[in-house]
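Dear support,

I submitted the protein below through the web form. The confirmation email said the job was done, but the results page showed an empty box. After a refresh the structure appeared. I'm attaching both so you can tell me whether what I see now is the final result or a partial one.
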Amino acid sequence: MATAPPEASDPIKGSIGYANHDFPIAGLKRVQRNITGFDEEGKSVFLSSDSGDFQHVMGDKQAIQMIMYSTRETPADLNDNIDIQKAAEVRVGASLVLLFEIEPPVFYRNGTVLRMIDFGPDVEGPMHRVMALVYGVIVEGVFLLTLDSGETKIFRQGDIIIQRAAAHKWKNITGNGTMPGRMLYILLDIKDYYHNGIKVDEYMGTLASEHENEGRAPESAQ
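What the results page shows now:
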């Protein structure tokens, strides 16, 4: 249960160079993220409107990831906008002010991550397992989900998948592999999982390199 299958070492496949500009990927509409807060009277107001944080081009320019929000603890602390500050963290250097963003990890222990990924046409990720509870939503397009058992299922716009530490891979088959697609993922922490008494481990395969610096500040600013 702890051994990654050979296909975990496969690279991201398809549409090399397609993600050659900022989010959103070519062919998909701009996403609007709105965050609410409170005014001096305690009434709810809109605080900001944008397209998310931490743009990350994946693979060989084959997909683009954006973090729509994250929390580092559950329950989340909304007092003094602490959650907002942590979701888009800014740190200060010792000798001069250095402002930079620190991208969240795949998921936070005892926290949450809301991640959106735009896939280029016919893009297929490697087999991997995230030890988290993942709510996946097809926002645009058609996707093929393959599990390590060999089972497959096609998901279309509006469909939802509840992944419970599933070993899986996604392939964008929108327009028979000729058009981009978009998915939204909500990742929640879980307790260690044991199958027949054996602990099930996470493996990211070649996707590990996409997340190796997440949650870390640049060395020059630490």
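Response: this is the final, complete result; the empty box was a page-load delay. The chain is about 5% helix and 35% strand.
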